[in-house]
Amino acid sequence: MTSNPPAAQPTGIDPRSPRFGATITAALLLVAVFLALTAPFADTLAVRAGQPAFVLLSVIAALFAWGAFAGIRRHPYGVVFRRLIRPRLGPPVGLEAPEPPTFAQGVGLVVVAIGLVLHLIGVPGSLVVSAGAAFVAAFLNAALGFCLGCRLYVLLLRARVVGRQA
User: What residue stretches are annotated with the DUF4395 domain (predicted)?
Assistant: First the structure.
């Protein structure tokens, strides 16, 4: 009698998970934009680093870094989705590769980090611009399922800038 090997687990992630995370991120970024718009310009580095918009964007940057370096599967929003949301939903229509959303997390990190650094060196409006740009990208993903970072990943993959080089 022969036994069949166990069925391989499907690879990929539920595409609803990144959209769930993008929804939370978009909401946090909208708050950051509001905080940045309402904060007066600060003359000293210490005051700029303690402003609520800077602190919130720093937390968002840390979350982007988590997703970019630990991988989208280990991101806190993904864990919440898998444990609390996913069991209440039907199966996904299909799975998607984790690399594009992981790359998108890195793009978000770069955009927000640039704004944080520019703010620290005293460039007025840098938090508003970087948080606003990141908000647009997160909102497009959350509302329409259009991931700008994922599209950028695919373009760079086709140009052989990222991904496996054969």
Answer: 13-158
Q: Is residue 22 part of a domain?
A: yes
Say how many C-beta atoms besides its own lie within 10 A of residue 55's C-beta: 13
Residue range of the domain that includes 106: 16-87+97-158
35, 56 Cβ separation under 8 angstroms: yes
Q: What are the tens digits of pLDDT across the range 76-130?
A: 999 999 999 999 999 999 999 999 999 999 999 999 999 999 999 999 999 999 9
Q: Could you tell me the end-to-end alpha-carbon distance of the chain, in angstroms, rounded to an integer?
A: 42
Tokens at residue 19, please? 């959209």
Written as six digits, the tokens of 85 are: 């949301």
Q: How many CB atoms lie within 10 A of CB 101?
A: 28
Q: Give the separation between CA 133 and CA 29, rounded to whole angstroms.
A: 9
Contact 136, 107 (CB under 8 A): no
Query: How many domains does the structure of the chain reveal?
Result: 1
